[in-house]
Amino acid sequence: MKINQEIIAKDGSARVTVITTNRGQIETPVFMPVGTRGTIKTIDTTDIENLGPKIILGNTYHLLERPGADLIADLGGLHKFMDWGGHILTDSGGYQVFSLKPKISEEGVVFKSVYDGSKVEMSPESSMEIQQKLGSDIAMVFDVCSALPATKESLSKDMEMTLRWAQRCKDFHNHPKQALFGIAQGGVDLELRAESAQRTVEIGFDGYAIGGLSVGESRDQMVPALQACISNLPEEKPRYFMGLGDPVGLIEAVANGVDMFDCVLPTRLARHGTALTTAGRINLKNLKFAKDDSAIDPEFITDSSGRYSKAYLRHLLVTGEPTGGRILTLHNLAWLADFVARMKVAILEGNFSEFRTKVLDVWN
Predict the structure, then answer these.
(1) What are the helix (H) ranges across the chain?
(2) Share of the chain above pLDDT 70, in %
(3) 60, 90 Cβ separation under 8 angstroms
């Protein structure tokens, strides 16, 4: 068994499930913190263990560049390399490649290294080979992430390439304990979204991701595109929305039946001084917090952040002390994990609609 999913409860389309892998179980909905280079920025594996996520992300492209997939494989794989016993999902490198504006051909992509400017080539097959060497529990197919806005012709071309590459990924992939997820593309075009999902399912994967959204489109564009995709994905397989980490986005995606999410947003916000709170985002660098003796979020107190005043944290942030970003990173990840846990309870208790309304009232 590579992966199995059991639906525990539903409230409308929102659902609570248990995903079982060779490594263990993951309850969903689940937010997956992003560990780009084998760590979540500013914190270590002990911190991650204390936060309690069952699954985190690793970045295929960055780990290929530094320290190298072969080195990690020689040292026992990514789990052993970072001494992490939980699950790891590795992205394919597609999004990072997309952001680097590569030359795209049928064979794959060519672009310049962000580290030394040297030429880097990636293909569906090499992405699979790298992810298998890393030894992640879930690998992603190599895809073309369309820049938005885009014409239907351009979106269709990228979708067709993604489908051809997805088949090549499946044909190459042979890791006995690693699940492989397909990725549906199509931008915000509803017909292409539905078609992409249908044809990706026809290829057949262990789970399915919604890619190419949360890249700058409006919420009014994102939700219908998500719905067009989800309605064509199987109920019994995990559904993963790539690159989504704000509370409104999460609540809307869960309302439409998504199980898994990842995003650098909560940790990036933290490093720049912004905290997620019950009352919304707050920028602790703001002068108004210079003499504020209250906790970041009086309604969410944790050992790692609740002991510190806004005034102290502002001092750390404006003086450039790395500890400030570390404390806020721990807070934001803990807060978001608690937010997802409260979503799960709302689904189990049958009051998800009321919970969603309250969230939108604060965060919209």
Answers:
(1) 45-51, 60-65, 69-74, 78-82, 94-99, 124-134, 152-172, 190-203, 219-230, 247-255, 265-271, 310-318, 322-349, 352-363
(2) 99
(3) yes
Query: Token digits for 33?
Result: 């913190």
Pairwise CA distance, residues 115 & 1, whole Å: 38
DSSP code at position 309: B
**67 preceded by a cis bond (ω within 30 of 0):** yes
* Catalytic (active site) residue 91: yes
Nearest Cα neighbor of 79 from 141, 4, 22 is: 22
Mean pLDDT, to the nearest integer, of 70-92? 98
In whole angstroms, what separates CA 346 from the centre of its chain? 22
> How many helical (H) and strand (E) elements, i.e. helices and strands, does the chain have?
14, 17
Among 143, 158, 262, 297, the active-site one is 262
Query: Can you give the pLDDT at residue 216?
Result: 86
Distance CA 256, CA 140 (A): 22
- Cα separation, 207 vs 4, in Å, equals 9
Instruction: Write down the catalytic residue from 91, 189, 246, 259.
Output: 91
CA–CA dist 244, 266 (Å, integer): 10
User: Is the model's pTM score more than 0.85?
Assistant: yes
Tens-digit pLDDT profile for residues 115-142: 999 999 999 999 999 999 999 999 999 9
The amino acid at 30: V
CA–CA separation, 208 and 51 (whole Å)? 26
